[in-house]
Amino acid sequence: MPFVTIGGITLHHRRVEANSEARPIVFINSLGTDFRIWDDVVSALDGEMPLLVYDKRGHGLSDIGDIKSIDDHVDDLCGLVDHFDLGKVVLCGLSVGGLIAQGFYARRPADVEALILCDTAHKIGTTDSWNTRIATVETKGIQAIADAVLKVWFTPAFHAARLPELDGYWNMMTRQALAGYIGTCAAVRDADFTDAARRIAVPTLCVVGDQDGSTPPDLVRSLAALIPGARFEIIRDAGHIPCVEQPEALVALIREFIASLPSGAETHG
User: Fold this and answer.
1) What is the DSSP letter of 3?
2) Burial class (CB in 10 A: 0-12, 13-18, 19+), 195
């Protein structure tokens, strides 16, 4: 298993090389998950373009570290991009991963070719809602909120027909480090990219599952409305994590979007 230490934080990651001249895509996962949520997407895109997935601090097999704000997660992403000498990248972030992607762009816009913002927003939730979640998790553990969270992660159809996977994602969420989960909740609570979104000047695709109960379509649409020229797409029959529930639909959107970029057009002829 590949690990790298960035600024004193050891991060678990996976790189997929490609002969293509396309820009690398870095995938950034959501709260309470690890990079395996991207497995189907990475498998489909394998060989088409360089890919990088990683467990953000406090999640998966990465160090917990100290999480004071979204900037700590942005620090790690900056370090990974530099360590692997990726140059200009396409960032694909889901939920808090989308906030991290926006934070990276705000800090280093020249290093971003394009953004794919999945089931995310310029600001997610309210101070009260996050404080309530943090208090519950602190006193009762992640298990206390897991069933409710999985109801917004996945559609009723997923809950009815894919029980083994549902159990697996319940396990994934509840086995995250408590300090990492709580720290990232606080980071999301305090993150606000409303003004920064208006200054995004690279091609941006905003995507959301039609049944996302965490960052609903109208919220993601409002993010797209802030970003000049952003494209907005809804994935049918998906909740908060389309890369798990409808990976083929997300891959199709990613391929089309990448091909529309100047670098993508050159690559795909």
Assistant:
1) E
2) exposed
Cα–Cα distance for residue pair 264/269, rounded to 1 Å: 8
Q: Report which residue type is found at 203.
A: P
Cross-strand bridge partners of residue 27 = 53, 92
**Whole-structure pTM value:** 0.96
d(CA 54, CA 170): 20
Per the CB < 8 A criterion, the answer to whether 225 and 236 are in contact is no
Q: What is the pLDDT of residues 116-150, one digit of tens each?
A: 999 999 999 999 999 999 999 999 999 999 999 99
Q: How many Cβ atoms sit within 10 Å of the Cβ of residue 5?
A: 11
245: three-class secondary structure by DSSP: helix
Write phi, then psi, for 89 (nearest 5 degrees).
-130, 160
Task: Name beta bridge partners: 116.
Answer: 92, 205
Two tokens, residue 141:
């553990």
For residue 68, the 8-state DSSP code is S
pLDDT, tens only, 55-100: 999 999 999 999 999 999 999 999 999 999 999 999 999 999 999 9
Which tokens in the block code for residue 170? 């319940």
Question: Nearest CA to 261 among 69, 47, 112, 57?
Answer: 112
Alpha carbon distance 158, 147 (integer Å): 14
How are beta strands 9-16 and 51-54 bridged, if at all? antiparallel
